[in-house]
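RECORD TYPE: inverse folding
INPUT: structure tokens
STRUCTURE:
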């Protein structure tokens, strides 16, 4: 079973996460941010991975530190879980509709972290979740996991739908990228390393 287990404690947050890539979509999520818990639940379900996340943060300030630090911890757990990347597809891509919204997520376990976030998301709150934290979460995750990650919102009006489609699209692209392929010997690179 490919899994990563990471704990991180700062003066602003205390976070623990376990990410098992070879799971069934089960999860145990508690960040204190209802909408974010919903998004992480969708991430587990649609990536067919098992995810445990417990976070305590300074929510009396806002959601920023908790969401970003969860991205850091989950990125580190994902990097640990994927290991040496031998035998995996490496790349993943997903177009995902959610009602009026359509998004595309493309990713590469290149070891060269980069984020392109082409999304005009209204700066609103969904419960206590700041919608603009979506970009910060995925930036932190991509940087820590060593992912090249492109997220593009083609269109959409409802903020909830747009963000939910992003998380689901990331999950589906991730599932594709980490899937084993018997045709892949070693890593999927002509250099022999990622």
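DESIGNED SEQUENCE:
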């Amino acid at each position: 079973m490919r899994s990563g287990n990471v704990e991180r404690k700062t003066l602003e947050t205390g976070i623990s996460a376990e990410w098992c890539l070879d799971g069934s979509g089960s999860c145990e999520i508690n960040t204190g941010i209802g909408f974010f818990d919903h998004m992480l639940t969708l991430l587990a379900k649609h990536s067919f991975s098992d995810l445990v996340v417990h976070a305590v943060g300074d929510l009396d300030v806002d959601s920023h530190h908790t969401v970003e630090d969860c991205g850091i911890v989950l990125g580190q757990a994902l990097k640990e879980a994927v290991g040496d990347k031998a035998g995996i597809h490496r790349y993943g891509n997903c177009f995902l509709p959610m009602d009026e919204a359509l998004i595309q997520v493309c990713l590469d376990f290149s070891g060269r972290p980069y984020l392109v976030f082409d999304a005009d998301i209204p700066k609103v709150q969904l419960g206590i979740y700041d919608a603009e934290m979506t970009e910060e979460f995925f930036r932190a995750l991509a940087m820590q996991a060593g992912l090249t990650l492109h997220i593009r919102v083609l269109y959409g009006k409802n903020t909830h739908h747009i963000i939910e489609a992003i998380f689901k699209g990331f999950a589906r692209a991730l599932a594709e990228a980490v899937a084993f392929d018997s045709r892949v010997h070693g890593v999927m690179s002509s250099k022999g390393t990622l």
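NOTES: Helices lie at 34-47, 64-82, 133-145, 159-178.
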